[in-house]
Design goal:
This protein is an alpha+beta fold. The protein contains five helices and ten strands, in the order E-H-E-H-H-H-E-E-E-E-E-H-E-E-E. Strand 5 and strand 6 form a beta hairpin. The longest helix has 26 residues.
Length: about 240
């Protein structure tokens, strides 16, 4: 039997309206509940902006400087963070629809004033220095992780009983369910184990955007859903650059 493949979803169809919006929502719901992760294309994040931040992030990590010593760095961080925050809201709208809720459910209850952070460095998915799987130990509030890797780094995600490579898809972003989203859905959505295979050094460190509920949000789980039992999962991480956005 062929190993399972991580799905790739074209989010641009969500903007067309029904029936495509329902179609994309069903794909996102299936991927989040079956794999806990997926690749995303059609996300409307400017490729030139991503490339610029990968390049500037590499200079930041290498030199350990920013501000006036690295022109354009903070402006690029802000622009990227704003764009990916909008993407996070759109993904949660698709998830809400897939869960048979109003599109604005997550924004109304948890993320109207979302807490976000951008991490640039060597451990974007809470991996230890030895590359052990992310088990989210430490009380993470992550709803979603949106990750951009650059060659030659690549990621593995646990599908069924084994870790499989996340395929390289041009322009794609990797999206992973966080432990809070798993708990809110009573385990219907799963927080998958994942690990980074570093390979040779890269001058372009990964970009990891973390999307969390607002600080005042009451994390009341949704109505009980059939399926998998909830699993407590939590995280710790190390990274070279981090900023609340």
């Amino acid at each position: 039997m062929s190993p399972p493949q991580l799905p790739t979803i074209d989010l641009s169809l969500f903007d067309i309206g029904d029936p495509w919006r329902d179609h994309v929502a069903a794909q996102v719901d299936w991927a989040a509940s079956t794999f806990g992760a997926f690749q995303l294309v059609g996300h409307n994040i400017d490729g030139a902006l991503i490339d610029m931040l990968l390049e500037l992030g590499g200079k930041y990590v290498k030199r350990g400087v920013a501000g006036p010593d690295l022109p354009g760095f903070h402006d690029t961080v802000r622009e990227y963070a704003t764009s990916v925050t909008g993407l996070g809201h759109k993904l949660l709208a698709a998830m809400a629809r897939g869960l048979r809720l109003d599109d604005g459910f997550f924004a109304d209850h948890y993320t109207g004033n979302a807490t976000t952070s951008l991490r640039i460095g060597d451990s974007p998915v809470a991996l230890s220095a030895a590359g052990q799987p992310d088990t989210d130990e430490g009380g993470s509030r992550r709803l979603l992780t949106i990750l951009k890797l650059s060659h030659p780094q690549h990621l593995q995600v646990r599908l069924q009983d084994d870790f499989v490579d996340v395929p390289t898809v041009p322009g794609a972003l990797y999206c992973a369910v966080g432990p809070v989203l798993q708990r809110l859905t009573h385990g219907h959505y799963v927080c998958a184990q994942q690990r980074l295979i570093r390979g040779v050094d890269s001058e372009r460190p990964p970009l990891c955007f973390v999307f969390e509920p607002g600080m005042g949000a009451s994390l009341t789980p949704l109505a009980v859903m059939p399926g998998r039992p909830a699993a407590d999962a939590t995280a710790s991480a190390s990274y070279a650059f981090a900023a609340r956005c």
